[in-house]
Amino acid sequence: MKCIVCGKESEFKICGECLIEREKIVDIDKFILEICSKCNSIKIGREWLKIELEKALEKAILDNLRHSHDFEVRGIRIQDRFAILRGILNGDLVEISVPIRYSIHRISCPRCSRESGGYYESIIQIRAVKRPLRKEEIERAKEIVEKAIRESEGEKDFISKFEFNKNGIDVYFGSRKLGEKVSRRIADELGGRIFESKKLHKKIDGRDSYRFTFLVRLPEYEEMDIVVKKDTLYVVKNARTGKGIDLLSGKYANVLNTEVAVKKSSFGWGIITNLDETSAEVMTEKGEILIVERPFGAEIGKEVYVFEYKNKKYAFPTDL
Ligand SMILES: [Zn+2]
Ligand SMILES: [Zn+2]
User: Fold this and answer.
1) Are residues 157 and 232 in the same domain?
2) What digits encode the pLDDT tens for the residues 102-156?
3) What order do you get walking across the sheet with 82-89 strand by strand?
4) How many domains are contained in the chain?
5) Nearest to residue 61, comparing CAs of 30, 24, 104, 103?
6) Quick check: helix, strand or coil at residue 21?
7) Among 46, 181, 191, 225, who pairs with 221 as Cys (CB 3.0-4.6 Å)?
8) How far away, in angstroms, is 73 Cα from ligand 1 center?
């Protein structure tokens, strides 16, 4: 068959190229693009996405495109105020240029409106047992929070307040899920425990809506502190993971959530001057001679830390 207009060989009465000249193949309805004036996310369908304006326009054009059934759209690009649609029409690969008519409405997306309205569903309270938070802990917690916010895109994934107080830090999150996730990361990284509680906030559409509190309690101990667990004294080797070593047997154990028996800041210092099967003789920095239970790793001449617990003296090698 030949095209009735140009006469070229075609499977159709009129070829694609000639058809574009004679009929309106494609039209794009006028549309509105809603862009958040605060975070620049763009509404696509029912979602707000952080995408480039051009990508958003392409999607909006495809949503508002009306075209003849004979035209099979293969691609789209935008040039100034025109959409150039590439596709197959009556056997020909054609490009059709169509004007785009749209207006941009700058509004506040749900996430930004909630954020600026102080909305929150969960609070993380970071506290340390019997001590203030350390500077490194505060820094690390802030990093974890910031990273989680960067990685999350949910409508409620924002912080509405970050508050320092004399007890620690309170962070208010727009979503419960994010608060839960961040509290778990902080507890994992800083070696704490999470206590979760919820409070009835209000009823939404007849359903109870709760506010959640994730209390992250960081341990009192630091590395090298002495903790006690089931009457055994352990030296804390890793405060984050809660690993301790029995100073007499050298056995490792989990000492998470144990009480501090002796802070390392109160240790004295000495040298092992004599040893037998069960005991060690230590000369302290003050020139005292002590007899203590033989610690793990004891050798004559080794430097030891010395401390007292429940009226009994102990020593253990400084390199334990
Ligand atoms: Zn033709
Ligand atoms: Zn926004």
Assistant:
1) no
2) 999 999 998 888 888 888 999 999 999 988 998 989 999 999 999 998 888 788 8
3) 71-79, 82-89, 92-99
4) 4
5) 30
6) helix
7) 225
8) 20
Residue 4 inside a domain? The answer is no
Q: How far is the CA of 37 from the centre of ligand 1 (A)?
A: 49
Edge-to-edge strands of the sheet including 207-218? 159-165, 168-173, 122-128, 207-218, 193-204
Number of H helices, E strands in the chain: 5, 24
CA of 31 to the centre of ligand 2 (A): 20
Instruction: Please name the residue that has the structure tokens 């690993």.
Output: 243
Given 40, 73, 107, the domain boundary residue is 107
Q: How far is the CA of 42 from the centre of ligand 2 (A)?
A: 8
Ligand nearest to the CA of 90: 1
Cβ neighbourhood burial of 313 (10 Å; 0-12, 13-18, 19+): middle
Can you read off the two tokens belonging to residue 80?
């100034």
> 58: exposed, middle or buried (C-beta count within 10 Å: 0-12, 13-18, 19+)?
middle
* Rounded Cα gap, residues 268 and 265, in angstroms: 9
CA of 136 to the centre of ligand 2 (A): 32
Residues 234-246 pLDDT 10s:
999 998 888 999 9
User: Residue 86 C-alpha to ligand 2 middle, in angstroms?
Assistant: 33
Q: What six digits make up the tokens of 278?
A: 């069960």
Cα 218 from Cα 209, distance rounded (Å):
29
Identify the helix (H) or strand (E) that includes residue 269.
strand 268-275
Name every residue whose Cβ is closer than 8 Å to that of residue 163 and which is 6 or more positions away in sequence: 169, 170, 171, 172
Q: Which range marks the domain in which residue 312 is found?
A: 267-320
